[in-house]
Structure formats: C-alpha cells, structure tokens
Amino acid sequence: MGVDMSNPPTKDFFASPALSLSLAGIFRDAGAAAAAAAASMEVEDGDEGSGGGGGGEEGSSKREETVEISSENSGPARSRSEEDLLEHDDEEDDGDKTNKKKRKKYHRHTADQIREMEMLFKESPHPDEKQRQQLSKQLGLAPRQVKFWFQNRRTQIKAIQERHENSLFKQELEKLRDENKAMRETINKSCCPNCGMATTSKEGSMTTEEQQLRIENAKLKCEVQKLRTVIGKYPPGAAPTSSCSAGNDQENRSSLDFYTGIFGLEKSRIMEIVNQAMEELKKMATAGEPLWIRSVETGREILNYDEYVKEFSVENSSNGRPKRSIEASRDTGVVFVDLPRLVQSFMDVNQWKEMFPCLISKAATVDVICNGEAPNKNGAVQLMFAELQMLTPLVPTREVYFTRYCKQLSAEQWAIVDVSIDKVEENIDASLVKCRKRPSGCIIEDKSNGHCKVIWVEHLECQKSTVHTMYRTVVSSGLAFGARHWIATLQLQCERLVFFMATNVPTKDSTGVATLAGRKSILKLAQRMTRSFCHAIGASSYHTWNKVSSKTGEDIRVSSRKNLNDPGEPLGVIVCAVSSVWLPVSPNLLFDFLRDEARRNEWDIISNGGPIQSIANLAKGQDRGNAVTIQTMKSKENSMWVLQDSCTNAFESMVVFAPVDITGMQSVITGCDSSNMAILPSGFSILPDGLESRPLVISSRHEKSNDTEGGSLLTIAFQILTNSSPTAKLTMESVESVNTLISCTLRNIKTSLECEDG
Fold first, then answer.
1. 324: which DSSP letter?
2. Which has the minimum average pLDDT: 70-84, 483-497, 589-603?
C-alpha cells in the first residue's frame, strides 16, 4: 500500500528547505560533474579589470546571480563565471581589430588550498571582503580567485539541490498518475464489491466523482508544468518524448555521474564500504562479553566502547567536528511475519515508513546504486534519507541519510545494514551532518510457521543538541531511537498484519462485526487514523509549532494547516494542539485508564459525563490492549460514534480516537471501502519517563511490581476543524477553544488518577 502523497502535508515534503538541504548532493548529471571539476580551476594572474570583476560587492552580487541562472538553465554548458575565469579581453593588442579573446593558462588548486577554502565555506558560504583578503594571503592566491571559487561552490550546491528536488517531483508525478488511474476505475464501478449494493445513484455519484477527478487532473497538470519548468528539459507547453520514470537510461547515467563526480566515489568503493559495514554488523549482533555488557539494574545491554574501538580499529572522527554523543543499543525479538515479506518492507521505502509510523516522519530512496538479484533483492544497495521523530513537538527530529545494503547470508538468514558514508556527507554541507549511522541494522533468521527472529543493532553518532528536560533522560539514554523501540514497533506492526489477514478469527476477538470484509475495512480505517495521528504531532518540518500557555500553566504547541482536496480528512482549516506532561503514574496504569470506555466520561469533556457503550471490539494483537473499538455517546439531542485504536508494546502506548459519520461507519462495518471516509484523529501517546531503577521489592507478579515504578510522559493532542472553507484564516477564538480543550482534559485526567500535585 503506497503512501498517500496527495494530502497537503505531503506538499510540505517537497517545499521544505530543511529536507531539500538535507538531501542536497544526491543527483548530479554529467554536465554538473564537469562543472564541479572546472570550478576548481582558476587563472594564475587574473587581471582585476577583466570579466567585469570590478564594481565591489554590488558587482559581486550581480555576477553571482548570473552564475546561478546559468547553472539552472544551461546544464552542461559552462557558467558565466567560469568564462570570466578562463577568458579575458586582450586590451593591450591594439592591432587586433577582431577583439578575439585569449585563453590564459590555468591551474588546479592544490589539495591544501581546496581544504582551507572548504573549511571556510562550511562556516560562511558568503565571506566578506576582509575574509577573502585574509584567505588569499594565507593561500597565496589573488582575492579575485578566492571570490570566484566561492561563487562556483555556491553554484554547485544550488545545482545539487535542484537535482534532488527534480527527482522528488518525478516521484510525486508518478503517484498522482496512479491515483488518477485508481479514481477512474472507482468511477466505473457502480456497486460495492463486498455487499453488492449500489453505492449511490449514478447521476449524483458521477457528479461528485467527476468534480474530484477534475481537481486531481488540475493538480496533475500543475505538477507536470512545474516539473518541466524546474528541469528546463522541455519548454513550457512542449510535450515530453520519453517517460518521466526514475528508472530510465538518463536517470541511470545520472546516478553513475553522481558517484564518480563531485563526491569522487566509485561504485566499487561504495561496495567495499557496505561490505565492511556488513561484517561489523554481524560481529555486533552476535558478540557477547566483553563487547556487550548486560546492566544489572536495567537488564539492557551496554556497548563497551573501549572494546569496540579495539575490535574494529575505529579512527577518531572528532577532528574539526562539533562534540558528538554515541548511542549504541542491541535487542532481540521474534516477529510474526515471513522472511521475504519482511525483507521487502525494508527495501521498499513506502512500506518501511508505514511499518514504523511513530518513528519515521519522512523517508525517501534517493538513488539505487545496485538493484540486486530479483525478486528477493539480494545484494541491493540504495542511498536513503529519513527524518526520525518522537511523538511530541518537544524533541527535535533527526535527519540522517545513509546507504542501505541487503544481503542473504544463508538459506535461512538475511542481513540489512545501514551506514553513513563520510565522503558523501562532507561534500554536501557540514551543517547537515548532525546525525550519522555507524553500521546498524538487523540480522533476520527464518523460523518455522511464519516467524522470524530479529537481532537489531542501532549505532548512532549525533551532534549534541538541547533537549527538553522532560525528555532528556529518554533521549540521552538511547531509549528514544534505540533498538528496543525499533523492535517493539516492528513486533506490533507485524502482529497487526497477522490479525488483519486472519480468516479464522475467534468470536471473542471480533464482536459487533458480522463479516470478515467488515472487520478488514474497520482495521484498515483504524490504521490510517493512527498513521495520520503520528504524522500530525511530531516536530517534523511539515509543521510550524507556536507556543502558547494555558490558563492552568501547561505549555501547549499549536499548528494549523489547510486541507484542500484530501478526501481522507475534512476539507477546510485544521488546528492541531499538543501538550506533553509528566505524570507520577506508571505507563500501564495510564494506558488502561485512557482506553477504557467505561471510564472515558471521567476525562472526555465532549461526553458531558454521559454513558458510553461499545458497539464493536476487534482484537489486533495478543495483548488485550491492542484493539479497535467503536463507541457510542448518547445525549438528549443526538448520539455520536467514536472510532478508537489502542496500541501498546514494550516501549510505547497510544490511544487514538476520532468522531465518525454514523452512516459512513455503518457502510464500513458491512465491508465497504473506507479510503475516502474523512477522519480527524486526536489522542494520547504514553512513554516511560526513562528513570529505570532496581525494584524496591522482589515479586513473582511481574506486572504488579512494574505498576509501582516510575512515571509516564504523556503527550495529548487534539485536532479540530475550525472552518470548512480552505480559504478561511485561523482565528484566536479557534486557538482558545482548542487550548481550553487540552487544559480541561489534562485536569480531568490528573483528578481521576489522584496526581494533581504531580
């Protein structure tokens, strides 16, 4: 199931400057590679008056603007600044009436000169006159040579960024085409394939569907025109003569140019690096003491870093870089999924993102270095990008790009390793290298009856940054982005898939729904709801969070967005408000309280304290907390249905809910398609506070002893539709209402759990 790229947040994916810069340097065609080589050439004794070099800073800015335009439109052609460097007017030759230009001798800068200029460029891409003068004296170059080198370097970065954005536009274009095709097929079907009943009358249905189709077609045409303009490959209005897919010969050639161009990395060198990383991963996954030492207090495995340096001959990578912290963790678990499907979910970026919705806010396959052996992808190597998140706006996201390598070790064992490559990162922009992956990944071993044993190793090198005090322990201990979190999420998602595909579901695990098609339709809707909730509340660059203070003292973050044409959400202006607090209650106790429909009226102010009944209850995991329920709230005026999805694993728990249209939900229960049902989720995310300690007492009742330890980090989020018109503006009344909603809900929760002073 592909990721829905048509909703408004997806547009931010392409417009985000953080993402564009993070992935800058990924695509480079043959012309750009040549430009990179030419950019390092300078005239030996350039005349200060030649090439229009005069005019001070104003002339410099004009020249830089010309360079950027040239790099965007001319492709392999040499930029104007390069011509200024290599050519000049021979003003001394009065006898030459044709005014031919002479090409002066040029030389390549030395490695030391390039290194010094690169160091200054990473700190200041636009050095002032004083900095250029100082650097020219230090390197023995003319100030004009230094000036032009910086202009050319900025041009390279801009061209790199444009290449990547072009690739993303192409991916979006393909997805829009697929959606358009699917919509046409839907229109042609006049009845529901599950219940056999006509969906609506033909005249009314076609009118609505045709309007939706026109919107999608207009969007598609806009994207195509934008793509043509940005690429500069076709003039406006011209028709392309070849496919826009990323797999054509032109793209393959571009990939090779990228790996032999600006980064200077041959494919053989990349394969050597990933094979070394694979060997390190195998040792890290299987070694015991002294490399890994188990903590007596927490039971978690801790990496002995001195032994690691000795075993793998790690070089000191702190030269010139900001101070970094090392996070290393290892965990093992058994998942309910067959091995080929699991391997495929790692190599397909959309499946990978859907498998870990609470951890991954953005992901992209930037380039495919090696396709591997079809169909199992053995030996596949691809360059990837990911933005990792926690379910709170208080913790900054981590942007990391890495090479992923998939290899079959034996008939029953596969390995998938991720590793960041130094050369690739350093040539893009030093500011982006805030998080790197040392050899990380998993060893997957096939067991009987569709089970797999997974050994997960997560090894990160991160630049130290400020984290909110409430989450500092969880992040600094490596729990937030560690192996335990990845394994627990993988187990939960695989178990959910098993229950979704099951055909022999016991009656007690599927109450209130008569058909298998109805059960699947409800579970699919609940999964989409939870995925949307995870997408909405993180610190991703998709969102712009504004801090407001509630009347009761909580810090609340508010963001807004406009939904123009996504049928999966209500159309109009949507406000999302999020607040994170610490509560002196165990995560298990808090989760059970929030998911229990019998106690919902204690915290839900919308219910007004009225009775709440469960219409349907569908199990989606072995733990009784993993379930999807449909609840009804009855009042004197009307009744309301609420869809609730509760999830829990060894690390994290969630309770996600949304009011639903009763008529629409009744059709979903019968088995009708739920993909176009508008739903706006709110809910809770629950984490342990990370303060692990030795238990005060020893008890055979493991669950009971856990309930007496530690506190919880609760994130509460509400989304409301403030105006059904997408052109409307956000009002302060809307912000105040959602602010009050969060404050009252938090107060009710604290009162019910008797932790008002916490």
1. E
2. 70-84
